[in-house]
Amino acid sequence: MNRIYLDHAATSPVHPQVINKLVETMEKAYGNPSSIHATGREARKELDNARLILAKSIGAKDQDIILTSGGTEADNLAIFGTAYARKNLGSHIITSQIEHHAVLHACEKLEKEGFDVTYLPVNEQGQVSIEDFKQALRDDTILVTIMLGNNEVGAIQPIQEIGLFLKDHQATFHTDAVQAYGLMPISVEDLHVDLLSVSSHKINGPKGIGFLYQRKATKLSPQLFGGQQERKRRAGTENVPSVLAFAEAVSIAQETMDEKQKLYQNFKEIMISTWKDKGIAFQVNGNVQSTLPHILNVSFKGTDVEALLVNLDMAGLSVSSGSACTAGSIDPSHVLVAMFGENADELRNSIRFSFGYGVTEDDIMEAATKTATVLNRLVK
Predict the structure, then answer these.
(1) Mean per-residue pLDDT of the chain
(2) Most buried residue, 2, 123, 202, 373, by most Cβ within 10 Å?
(3) Angle at 235 between CA 233 and CA 236, to 5 degrees
(4) Residue 192 CB contacts under 8 Å (≥ 6 apart), including other chains
(5) Closest alpha carbon to 214 in 200, 234, 228
């Protein structure tokens, strides 16, 4: 049976060129970048070159990049680092109800410590309202953290508008760009963000590596203590092989971005037209025109998500019902709850298809047909 992997929003397969770079670096650049001998200096040179690639991908400077163990650490460093560094200026934080749990759980912890957090609602397209944001903003707001693109439904948020509005406000502006990075052009100057989180494994790089962009003069309290790596902002010997492999994945992603956007939009159109032709009752969650190109979240009427996932898996399709970080949980998706309400049918019948490297048009046609077959069998 041909297994088709359509869960790239959860994680992506490592690109062959990235694997080669990882192995090559392990063999040839194994020195500690903090060492002053030739072996260490060579590792430092390679690391600096990779950091420059990462920085250029978002229109930043190399010194603005803090290497982390992934998106979760980057989000945590942004949120806790800002809250603790700026608590003398206020205690109010603004976020949204549909953030990744790396953001939501961090905010919940800060609430227990006495910080005041506002969770902005979203509409049925999964987007926050600028007016709601403006009404929530206070003089004592020290942090605004809104994701760039949602990981479950792909909804793109009005980050640039929020950033422009905050230009004359004291609040630090952070965006979780983990799901959007590599799939859409990102410029920290255009977005007017102070902090931006990224992860490698979403763009065919290795797991366990990511970065946090920090705008110059943006205050941030370190959360790890030890050596003086990352300009004293994040202690720990740098993972040189993974950083170089990450940079290789970034280069590939930047070079193929336009091609991927067109390809994935075509994938969406194939799936939607196939289901329409076969008389499947469904609705797309979110506006296809304002979502990330690789995510298609669909509600199939008259189905149960657990039975649907099991049957699709047996048919050879690897798909998801939401965030991979809550896999195995019986709790409904917090994103869909925010979009449709606590008792909505969408909570019990929605599937996320997400595309990426290695997926072909034939795969998509086969996946759409198999999904229709499963639905015709399950729907009474």
Answers:
(1) 95
(2) 202
(3) 145
(4) 160, 163, 164, 166, 167, 173
(5) 234
Enter the DSSP assignment of 117: E
Tell whether the torsion through CA atoms of 105, 356, 265 and 184 is positive or negative.
positive
Domains and CATH numbers, the chain: 4-12+257-378 (3.90.1150.10), 16-255 (3.40.640.10)
Strand partners, 173: 144
Catalytic positions are 325
User: DSSP state, 303?
Assistant: -
**CA angle, 341 then 345 then 346, to 5°:** 75
Residues with Cβ < 8 Å from 281, sequence gap 6 or more?
300, 301, 302, 379
pLDDT digits (tens, 9 = 90+) for 317-362: 999 986 444 455 557 899 999 999 999 999 999 999 999 999 999 9
Distant-in-sequence, close-in-space partners of 13: CB < 8 Å, separation ≥ 6: 5, 204, 356, 357, 358
